[in-house]
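Quick one, probably user error.
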C-alpha cells in the first residue's frame, strides 16, 4: 500500500494595498439671511419703550409697541432668517407695553387730582359757623320775644282782645280810700283800656293786673272804672265792648315799677306785658 505524498503548501502572494482616496472636506453651513423684519421690530420696540416712560407721549407709545409686537411675531415666522432680534423685540415690546399701561394710569390719576384741586370748592358751612348762625337766630327770637310794649301801646292777644296801657302815675290817690287796706308804701295808678274782640265775655278784677320790680311781683290793691270811679270787684266785659279801668298797686316808696301785666282770665287767659319806663 502506497502512501500518498503530501501536497506541498502554496503560499498566496500578498495583495498589493490600494491607497485610500483622500476625504472630501464637509461643505460649510449656509449662513442665515439677515432678518430685516426683526430689525424693524426691534427699532419699533426701542422707540416705543422711550415713548412709554415719557408722560406726554405715553398714549402714543401703545400704538408703537403694539406694532413692534406684531412685526416681531411675523419676523419669527420667517424661515431661513435670523430670529434673535425678532425675539428681543417681542420681549421688549410686551414688557414696555405693560409698563406703559401703569404710566398711563398714573398720568390720568394725576390729571384728575389736579383738576379737582383747581376746581372752585363749595364748602359746607362749618359747625362753628352753623352754631354762630343758630345763636344769632335764637338771640333775635329771644330779643323779639322779650320786646314788650310801653305806655300808649296797644297789644292784641291771640284771642283778639286789645289791651292798651294808658298811663302810670306814682303817688296816686284812689277815689275811695276806705276800699283799700292800709298803704304801706306808695300807690301807683295803672290806667288801662281793654276792648273785647273775642267771642266770650272777659272778666276783670284786681287779680287781672300785676306789677313787677325786678323779679318781685306786686298785686293790685283795688280796681276802679276810670270814668265811673266804681270799684270793680269782678266785672265782665262782653264781646265787642270796651272798658277803661285803673288799678292801684302798693309798692315801696321811691321805687318805680318795671313792668305791668294784664291777664284776660285768671286761670287760662292770655297775658300781655308792658314796660313802664
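Nope, works fine. Designed sequence:
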Amino acid at each position: 500500500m502506497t502512501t500518498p505524498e503530501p501536497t506541498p503548501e502554496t503560499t498566496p502572494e500578498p495583495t498589493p494595498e490600494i491607497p485610500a482616496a483622500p476625504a472630501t472636506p464637509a461643505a460649510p453651513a449656509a449662513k442665515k439671511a439677515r432678518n430685516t423684519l426683526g430689525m424693524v421690530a426691534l427699532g419699533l420696540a426701542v422707540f416705543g419703550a422711550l415713548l412709554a416712560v415719557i408722560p406726554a407721549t405715553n398714549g402714543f407709545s401703545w400704538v408703537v409697541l403694539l406694532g413692534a409686537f406684531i412685526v416681531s411675531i411675523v419676523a419669527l415666522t420667517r424661515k431661513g432668517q435670523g430670529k434673535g432680534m425678532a425675539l428681543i423685540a417681542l420681549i421688549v415690546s410686551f414688557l414696555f407695553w405693560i409698563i406703559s399701561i401703569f404710566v398711563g394710569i398714573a398720568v390720568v390719576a394725576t390729571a384728575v387730582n389736579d383738576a379737582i384741586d383747581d376746581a372752585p370748592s363749595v364748602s359746607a358751612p362749618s359747625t362753628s359757623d352753623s352754631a354762630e348762625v343758630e345763636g344769632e337766630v335764637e338771640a333775635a327770637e329771644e330779643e323779639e320775644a322779650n320786646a314788650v310794649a310801653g305806655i300808649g301801646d296797644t297789644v292784641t292777644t291771640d284771642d283778639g282782645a286789645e289791651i292798651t296801657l294808658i298811663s302810670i302815675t306814682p303817688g296816686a290817690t284812689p277815689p275811695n280810700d276806705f276800699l283799700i287796706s292800709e298803704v304801706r308804701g306808695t300807690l301807683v295808678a295803672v290806667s288801662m283800656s281793654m276792648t273785647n274782640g273775642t267771642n266770650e265775655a272777659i272778666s276783670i278784677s284786681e287779680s287781672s293786673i300785676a306789677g313787677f320790680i325786678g323779679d318781685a311781683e306786686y298785686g293790685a290793691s283795688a280796681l276802679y272804672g276810670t270814668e265811673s270811679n266804681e270799684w270793680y270787684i269782678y266785672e265782665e266785659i262782653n264781646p265787642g265792648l270796651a272798658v277803661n279801668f285803673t288799678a292801684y298797686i302798693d309798692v315801696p316808696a321811691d321805687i318805680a315799677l318795671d313792668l305791668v301785666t294784664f291777664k284776660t282770665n285768671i286761670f287760662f287767659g292770655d297775658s300781655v306785658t308792658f314796660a313802664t319806663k
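The chain has a mean pLDDT of 79.
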